[in-house]
Amino acid sequence: MQKSPNYTLYFWLITLGLVVSKMLFTFRPEISLFTEEAQYWLWSQNMAWHYYSKPPLVAVLNYISTAILGNSEIGVRINAIVFGVGISWVTFIFGTYLFSKKVGFWASLLLQSMPLWWLASTFHMTDTSLTFFWILSVYLAYRGIREQKMSWWILAGLTTAFGLMAKMVMILVFPFLLFFLLYTKEWAIQKKYFLSYILVSAIGFLPMLIWNWQNGFDTFKHLAALSGAGEGDSTPFDVGKVAKQFFEYLGGQLAMVSVFLLPLFGGFLVKIKKYRDSKFIYLLLPAVMSWAGFAFLSLLTSIEVNWPVFAYSSLAIVLAAWVCEQKGVWIKLRNWGVGLSIFVPLLFLLPDFTFLKSIAPIKKAEKSAFRRMSGYQPLADRVAFLQDSLGVKDAYVFSETYHMASELAFYLPGNPQTYMVNMGSRKNQFDLWPGLEQFVGKEQQGIFVSWNYEEPGEFATFQKLRYEEHFQVFFQGEKLRDATIQVWENMERYDPYISDTY
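^ Phospholipid carrier-dependent glycosyltransferase, sequence as received from the core. Prediction below:
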């Protein structure tokens, strides 16, 4: 009798192998934090109920992890790595619960082949914890529906509350579950459980409501602006622009589930009429609703590629259930699709153990991919050197973007609070913190650092420019870009751009 494969062991061997690859990436000295990661880390140094654009969970997680591991790249990214394992594990146990361990294993492996998983599990963004709590809530709610036990619904409510504290788009879980219960005619049976679930989940709204009550409901204005509402002057309907936005959205979503897996998705869609039972409806509905909702918004405004993908994890279970029934060419397409989908990100993430990164197109692609994650450590080192050599260690550091200001706060010795001078950007968290106005009229130096501007200009005027240089940063020995560094003395006037956009 042939021994059945140990799919649980296979899962952990592959998953832990991918964990090691991400650790190696995190320790690459030429790679800095992504600018959004640096911003969320800075939030953790300024704890609050909520923040301008996002709920507090990402900051709370950074606060805990850096308290243990220090203010370091691994101190931040350990959150993404751990949640990445969690997302994969929940997918494994969900697929196992619905079908078999074989399906659960392949579901987790297909998910780990998708760029959406690599992004969420490599860089600590709000999508990291959102994606985990989404798939966990969907799994627990399904257990509650099938087993009709209040305990599963209460657990689902708690995980949904955490999801709401990760990113407010978690709210889409409510219409998804309601639609499913109505579609399957289970509303009457599940009504009391669902309402209890809503009540427990409501805990997740409290931080947002408390903070926004205190801050003029800025988050709601920000979300309205992102959705294309309230943008002020109306513009004529432009068919070309709308079509461009939609097809960019469509292409981005196909890329996020891996172009190498598209043949499998195509094969499943051809046979989708055979998969109409409630299990498949439940797994497909989150992705369909999320995709359709953001597809509609893409007709009104530009959509970031990552916005809908938090709800796509269950697609991996659907695909695994289908492909495990197939033979021949479909198995080859599965194996090659998974292999290539994992190989490509590993090629870019891992240090150069082979000759491959010496190939010109690959070297160029890596440089382009990591452009926004390179150069901040040497730039901060240069600023620190100038502070010491010029005798201005108490100088405040500022930039015109929250990206640069956040990175410098992370990489400068002692992690000082940095500042932003708004020179024409949307409102952001820096606009709500004490700013450069506190230095007006004081005999103190300020250091301006920017990739984009030669000076702060009319937005902040000083008595004297003491020092200026253009500092070059490199990636793998090749020039990446120049930064302007200026040391100013005694701010006389501070007149930042006052944004009316959110």
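The chain is about 55% helix and 10% strand.
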